[in-house]
Amino acid sequence: MIRHLFKLIWNKKKAHSLLLVEILASFLVLFGLTSLIVYNVRNYREPLGFEYQNAWAISLKSNEDTTELAQKIEMVLQRVKAYPEVESASRMSNNFPFSQSSRNNGIDYNKKHVLADFYVTDENYAKTMVIPVVEGRWYRSADSVGKYSPVVINRKLKEELFGDEKPLGKIISERFKVTGVVNTFKSKGEFMVDKPALFELVDAKSPWDDLLMIRVKPGTDAVFEAKMVKAITTMVAGWSVEVDHLTDSRKTTHNLTLVPVIIFLIVSGFLLINVALGLFGVLNLSIAKRRGEIGLRRALGATGNGISQQFISEILVLATFALLIGLLFAMQFPLMNVFDIQAGIYLTAIAISVVVIYGIVTLCALFPSRLAARIQPAVALHEE
Amino acid sequence: MINLTNIEKVYRTSSIETLALNNINLNIRKGEFVSIMGPSGCGKSTLLNIMGLLDEPSKGTVELDGQRVSTYRDRELARLRNEKIGFIFQSFHLINDLSVVDNVEIPLLYRSTNGKPRQTYAKEALEKVGLSNRIKHFPKQLSGGQKQRVAIARAIVGKPEIILADEPTGNLDSAMGNEIMNILQGLNDEGATIIMVTHDENMAKRTHRLIRLFDGTQVQ
Question: Which residues form the ABC transporter domain (chain B) (predicted)?
Fold first, then answer.
């Protein structure tokens, strides 16, 4: 029967070409959408690697002041630490979690070159951000006495650089010594892909890394924030101070990811509804046109259910033709590693899109095919 | 073979009730070639549809090989139509998107005959009606007579015991009509029971028995 249906569809290919293009276009749009969703869901399921609740980022800008910047930053840090509301405070580069700035550099080890995100932080950063260290330990200021600067890397960088090798104590890029490994660190939020990352000990004498990360006690409010900002601006006159609550920054970052996905979802939704309605209409029309054939098939031995199954199978065969063409395009994405996204994401998106397309066409065919099954053969044959 | 007792068929709409058949009693024996005649609208096709299990009578009983079919479900009726009955229609009812051989194969699809034997049987049936050189053609490429021969091949491909022909020569000229009639007579000679609706007295004369209907009632 399948062969018979293939012949029937193939011999009517011109009449079906528009329908085929519609299903193909729907598949491709759906594939794009599901790739985006699968990519983001997969990322979301990976742990963030730190706790953003009750964490504040204090940006210090020295403006016109150019004297003793490092000492002033250190002084502010000590002042902030002294507040009973502050559980932990540390200094870091301005690419703090959920910020829009980023910093990356190449890391070399044994002829391997990996591009990694760089975070310059002090020894308290792991405590402040609640980052679990899974191998070794977080670096201390005392570790910087040697020739090499101590660094902590994330699991991703460890896998790419060392594979199964033990990373602790290894020298990378001829200037860093690995003291510890953390699991994940997705500074741009849950939707960010887990990228290679490296934490480098901040140089206490450097005037550049002027951002303070603090963890406050739960329930600490804006009154404390105002008091702290006022105290800082009094200490370092002429500097500007800006406080970002990571909970708010996270929302903004999420919006940047989610809004395009939602827009894409709405547009695709409308497209799929249109295609579904189109299919529904075309099938209804096709059944009205083929009443004689339905009567004939009933006369030759088809049951009502058999007729219903035939119409559903026909649309499934048509969808299969469209999907085969669609797969030729879609399979290029994992094969050519487009956008440097894992092949598994594309393959999952392809599988979901195929299932959804088959689901939609089956749903659209269900009602018209039931109508076809109810056609009285004697009446249909007489009409012809 | 086919036994109709007190058959009545009424078509009802919300406002009109039409009596299409009234008190029809008929017994068709195995191997008979029967023609049904009557003016348009007298119920010939309705009677043929009831005998072909495509329609149900409003009253009365239909027996096929001694079995009452009124209790049969859709699946059983479909099986009987597929295995015991072959249909030939005035307007051929060929599927234009399928080739001649694919059209002829259709009844075998519904009894799940495999591809190769299906094609062999279809070719044999086409050979029988003299169309073995047209198997790859499409219905639109055939003349009226050739189309009807394809329809006959389709009707006989499953080797049914009964052939129901609804004005098989109605759309053909007399020469072509005679050719079709010769084929039907040949099939009857081979043992098929044939019931044919016709308007043509000459065709009817070539059958064993003539049944005349008038206003839904059997008059002969």
Answer: 2-219
